[in-house]
Amino acid sequence: MKERLYLFDTTLRDGAQTTGVDFSVEDKRRIAQVVDDLGLDYLEGGYPGANDTDTAFFAAPPKFRNARLTAFGMTKRAGRSVENDTGFQALLQSGSQAICLVAKSWDYHVRVALGISTEENVEGVSQSIKAVVASGREAMLDCEHFFDGYKGNRAHALAVAKAAYDAGARWVVLCDTNGGTLPHEVEAIVSDVAKVIPGTHLGIHTHNDTENAVANTLMAVRAGCRQIQGTLNGLGERCGNANLTSIIPTLLLKSEFADRFETGVTPDRLSKLTHASRVLDEILNRAPFRHAPYVGESAFATKAGIHASAILKDPDTYEHVTPEAIGNQRRVLVSKQAGKSNVLDALARIGMSVDKDDPRVGQLLEEVKAREAQGYAYEAAEASFELLARRILGNVPRFFSVDSFRVMVERRHNARGELVTVSEAIVKVYINGDAEPLWSVAEGNGPVNALDSALRKDLGRYQKHIADIELVDYKVRILTGGTEAVTRVLVESLCTKTGERWFTVGVSPNIIDASFEALLDSINFKLVRDNAVVEHHAAIPGAAE
């Protein structure tokens, strides 16, 4: 019988410490859903009470099917009881199912940073864990700088870990906080700790400062740890954390681990890994790392030459795993291989069942390839992909047509003599079947907001369907350099009535044109979802949908 490994995602907490990363509440909710869909066991949402974003996330977390929502925080402060520590009480009052406390396990930090005795530190750990257990939550302790602490004072480091275990901690997590420990050291130290604390209660949390976070994690598993902490795409402060997008497929696809262990990530869920990785990159508004193991665009790419022809005949000998297993695909650069399975999987995710031999599937695949060459990316723009798929499959009505639009930006002095910038947009729309156009004019906070407001100001008979749409996020990425740069715009829309969110994409050398395309997709997607009725099907020559 295989042993169970438990996967702990800390993208929303430790990953948020990455330079340049600043998650919004909605970013955190969306990432949380992606992690939950993968089948991970724990999701660390942040530090409730420490900042407004984390507090708001825990006040209204998304519903999970697989993961246990975990709050992070410190053990009680020295010199205070559990009851009189407001930070600790905020953890107990959060809506989390588990609480991961952090404590210092290096005696040097206990003396210098905390200014207390090692005995008081151990007692504080014990009292804190007991309080979490008493609250009915699953308790964990993250032993900060454990490996350095072990090297400096083995007895104290083990005493901290043992105190947490004896107090009822489900998991005692050994953290390589500064990322300086090497794989052979991790294996030896974890093996020693496992003599004191059962491996079924040991976790590992590594950082990547020596490019060994994944290797250190795997060595810890071999030595006894059964909980694994990490982040999607290896996010984290300095050089990042252990990369779950590398660890998870290694555990599931490499025989040394797959033959001994099992996780909550099924083969079907594993096939969503590449999608999850790229969704995170889109949320962060950054280009995916093409050469990332397993999930990178070049992870299974081969240039022309001796490998190009051989890989088509016998891919198993040239690829260490099957790319489709993690949702990626093979790329032979002289002739990119067809990926009908990827398209069929994407259609299934949006609830569209199509026969694999339907010729329209190939047509959709070719269209996606052509658009990707232009700069489109549908990994995080599911609504735009669904519209594209439905149009090719022949079931998207033409609700309205935009004949023209104009956007003006003027910088001037207002009536009070203040220098202001004013944006105004005019949109001319034909509602399908109507002979007369509708003109809408609106001002906004910037040209895109003005255009959005004008477009949604009056859609005639469809207005009731779009009255509750709100533009909540807008991201721009420059795809090529120079003055004629191609721009990709990602728009997030919200239905204020149902809370549903969707993402659309537009691409153009003109940022306003790209934005308008994404806005049009957003409105059309809402009309499709609402099954809006089209009374006529008159076409407006040359007009945009």
CATH class of the largest domain: Alpha Beta
- Stated plainly, the CATH topology of the largest domain is called TIM Barrel
Strand order of the largest sheet: 2-3-4-5-6-7-8-9
Tell me the total number of β-strands: 18
Mean pLDDT: 90
Relevant CATH superfamily of the largest domain: Aldolase class I
Describe the 3D structure:
By secondary structure, this protein is α/β, with parallel strands linked by helices. It has 3 domains: 8-283, Alpha-Beta Barrel (TIM Barrel), CATH 3.20.20; 301-379, no CATH class; 400-529, Double Stranded RNA Binding Domain, CATH 3.30.160.270. It is built from 20 helices and 18 strands. The strands form 5 sheets. The chain has an 8-stranded parallel β-barrel with strand order 2-3-4-5-6-7-8-9, surrounded by 8 helices. Helix 5 (118-134) packs parallel to helix 7 (154-166), helix 6 crosses helix 7 (154-166) and helix 17 crosses helix 20. The N and C termini lie far apart (57 Å). Residues 304-309, 333-338 and 537-543 have low confidence and may be disordered.
